[in-house]
Amino acid sequence: MKRASLYRKLFLYFLTVIIVSLTTVGIVTYYASSQELDRMVERQLSQMVGNAAYHTDLYLKSYERSMVSLLTNKEVKRFIDLPAGLEGYEFYEIQKQIKEFVIDPIFIRNPEITAVYSISFNENAVYYYNEVTGSSFTPDQIKEQLAFFKTNTSAYGNLSVLNRSIIESQNNRTITLVRQIRGLTSSEPQGILAIELRSAELSELWKGIELTNTGFFFIVDERGRIVYHPQRERIGETVQPELKRSIVESGLQSFVAEENGERRLYRSQKSAYSGWHLVVSMPMAELRKPVDTIRVTSIVVGLFTLVFALWLAFRFGKSITGPIRALKEGMRETEKGNWATIPLPEQRQRDEIVELMIRYNLMVNRLSELVDKVYQAELKNHEIQMERQKAEFQSLQLQINPHFLYNTLETIVCYAFVEDSDEISEIVRALAYMLRYSVQTNLEEITVANELKHVLNFMIVLKHRAGREFEIDVAVKPELLLHKMVRLTLQPLVENVFQHAFEGGVEDYHCIRIDAGEGEGTFWVSVEDNGNGMPEDRLAELREKLEANRLVDGGDDAAGKKGGIGIVNVHRRIQMVFGEQYGLHIESRLDEGTKVTMIMPSTGRPSG
Questions:
Q1: What is the pLDDT of residues 68-105, one digit of tens each?
Q2: Is 286 helix (H, G, I), strand (E, B) or coil?
Q3: H or E stretch including 599?
Q4: Which residue ranges does UniProt annotate as crossing the membrane (predicted)?
Q5: 594 and 587 in contact (C-beta within 8 Å)?
Q6: HSE, side-chain direction, 13 A CA sphere, residue 382
Q7: Buried b vs exposed e over 392-420: b needs ≥16 C-beta within 10 Å?
């Protein structure tokens, strides 16, 4: 395959990738789905058995409470203490008292109870029946019953749940709650007390467990006898020894056993209250049916996907090799493009890709020279641009209004000539501070407090020039005074108000307000007046000049004042320091006033 075409290589590679991918995905999906289904079945069976055990215990406990009135009844305890073979008035009187005051109320409240009886260890017995036909028992039968109950109950008075009735016709139809009880004169048990319940209502709880047609739920007592089974004829049977051992020893784990030649999955849980084992059984063939379906579906879908993917690989290979051949010829004419060199493969194969790489490398030497020249030119242009921007910045910083200085100096001369006054000292100090503050070049960012002090000195000079005082409302919060801002940006905005907003002269109703604040990652300082305002066309023109992001050279223009720093230069200066996304925002209404807001980053506040 030394001269193998790119198309054949692509097709073989695609075929390998597709087969490996489909096989891997199919196997992983099958096993993952199988395991997840197994876990889901385990959870469902565990939940079924757990719910059945909980409701069964809850149901039996409700009837155990019916025994409390019997356990604490004095007549019942007296009966337990009667001597052996006692018959007569006292025996029948106690029997009557128990029936009228204890048994009858229990039968009324709990019609599910079929019988209540007590047998003392002295072999005295009393029986009460509820809507079932009972019978008397011989002394031998009573002795046999007593022996059975003593064997199957605890001497500590714990409750036992048995699947046995003293009435032959009720076998496998009732559940017996029985316990040993004490009399009045002894601290040790002297007899047994039993209540028999119809199992039909309890069976309704278990019938609600929804399984498949071949699955079922059943209950086995501690001796291996079936207490409940959906097939009523199996109630009372004893399960196979191997199945009984698996049920007892499995704990909360599922196990597989064979029954009637069919492998089935069992999940059991022992009731801590009744001692029964509640078991769910499902055939393995039915449980594995979804997994088998997934396997068949995965194979069918995989084969279909393989055929479709091979067709796509065929089309894709054709679509790649055609353009590459055209590109190979075209790159012979474009060997001056900007591409890096790539090493050629060691093998001697000369397919379309190798040809493309050879033609590509012919361009690299020329491209490296061009890139170096372009980079050096761009670097030089960048340095020139930085120098120009620095010069613009420093030039802007050093601009001062000559008319303002001339008028101020003239005012100083007049004061000095007319009278020897403290005003001269005040105005000279203010002017000296302004000049020093204006010509500093070592710091581009200062604090709000510095700018406000500069405005204060400007107002001192302006007071002497105008011949009257004018107060500015400063609403800046104290915690914002140390926030950083650009130098010589606040005073030009205040001066602009006096030159344009109050063109007719300063009146008492005129006011200027300086405020500052933070929000959404920005810090802002605003200068607001209630002067003339601007018409919409003038405001639109000024906003357009701000968006141009260029310095102005002075003159009577939208910069805001003749020969000064101006609004546009303040805007550009903020952008030079903090970036293009910051600057001035202007709001104005004709005859209502103007508000100019400087927007800067909130990170300008100094730490600590």
A1: 777 778 888 888 888 887 777 778 888 888 888 888 88
A2: helix
A3: strand 593-601
A4: 12-32, 294-314
A5: yes
A6: 6
A7: bbeebbebebeebeeebeebbeebeeeee
